[in-house]
Design a protein that fits this description.
By secondary structure, the chain is an alpha+beta fold. Helix 1 crosses helix 2.
């Protein structure tokens, strides 16, 4: 990162803190390997982690000021589904990890819970269960944040976020190309699909999300949560730094991506410190010394071999972010 760029970003941050005071942890040249489940990635030019009552106004102002200054902003959730380039991320990484908890907008008596977007998924699952509400069990044990799960329409065990999402509060471009806060209501034809959400096509920041749950036998809910957590544990989700499934499933293939990879004998395939897990064909793991380029090269190699042998074009579920050129 060049000195003049550092100065430009530092001045931008100082201006935002003056205009919209907020507690914020500001770090320059922050290693992104400390903030992703893959434990790889170069430095972020500037890592901004706001918190406190001024969180929303500070974030909106930061987005607007960064837009004016042509400084890119990357929004970081739990870092559970990304591979950050070895060269890092240019501009500002806006960390949402301090924006957590249930919001004042929750209507528990109407079986609606509202969570700030930085809330850990498992935290939200436990909160719902403690409130005697079911519908979140499919997320039990999943790493990441509510905002990230909404953005990617996280899916597992036959359910997805769109099944329970009611609305989301977002900061998006409005009049004059300025970021404004609005409520995105979820309804039929809202743009949700398999691992897809309308937010992926919007230049927006997810601030909070409301979920329509329902009352059920709490013992049944807890049993389902435990079952799903155990299944993730048994499948090796937590054995090595990784991001869970590397490739999306496609019904047109007739079988899961992991099964296709397994049948081609690709489990155990390794490039550098990255490896197709011996215990799951759709996991790419960091064996302890992988760099981001190893993971990307391995994903490309697996996709190429599947294409050559089976004619299927695998699409990565993990996102490769940062400066790759």
């Amino acid at each position: 990162m060049r000195g003049k760029d550092i100065n430009k970003i530092a001045q931008l941050i100082d201006l935002c803190k003056t205009e919209t005071p907020s507690e914020a942890d500001i770090r320059f040249n922050e290693p992104m390997s400390d903030h992703t489940t893959f434990k790889v990635g170069g430095n972020a030019d500037c890592f901004v982690s706001p918190c406190g009552d001024g969180f929303i106004t500070f974030c909106v102002n930061l987005l607007n000021r960064a837009e004016e200054a042509a400084v890119p902003v990357f929004v970081l959730g739990g870092g559970a589904n990304i591979v950050v380039s070895d060269k890092g991320i240019r501009g500002i990484v806006l960390d949402m990890s301090a924006w957590t908890g249930e919001t004042a907008g929750a209507l528990r008596e109407e079986e609606e819970l509202v969570f700030k977007s930085g809330t850990g998924i498992d935290e939200a699952v436990n909160t719902a269960a403690c409130a005697g509400l079911c519908g979140f069990e499919f997320l039990a044990g999943m790493p990441g944040t509510i905002g990230g799960a909404v953005w990617m329409n996280a899916r597992c065990y036959g359910k997805e976020m769109a099944d329970v999402l009611k609305w989301a509060e977002i900061a998006c471009r409005g009049a004059g190309n300025k970021y404004v806060i609005k409520k995105f209501e979820v309804g039929d034809g809202s743009g949700f699909d398999y691992k897809l959400s309308p937010f992926q096509k919007m230049d927006c920041l997810i601030l909070s999300a409301a979920f329509k749950l329902k009352k059920d036998d709490i013992s049944k809910t807890l049993n389902e949560m435990e079952k799903n957590r155990k299944d993730r544990l048994d499948k090796g989700h937590y054995l090595f730094p990784c991001a869970g499934s590397a490739f999306k499933n496609n019904r047109d293939f007739g079988k899961p991506a992991g099964q296709i990879i397994d049948e081609l004998g690709l489990k155990g395939l390794k490039i550098g410190g990255a490896q197709v897990a011996a215990f799951h064909g759709n996991f790419i793991i960091n064996t302890g010394y992988a760099c981001a380029s190893d993971i990307r090269a391995l994903a490309d190699e697996v996709a190429a071999r599947v294409k050559s042998a089976a004619g299927f074009t695998l699409e990565t579920e993990i996102l490769f972010v940062g400066e790759w050129q």
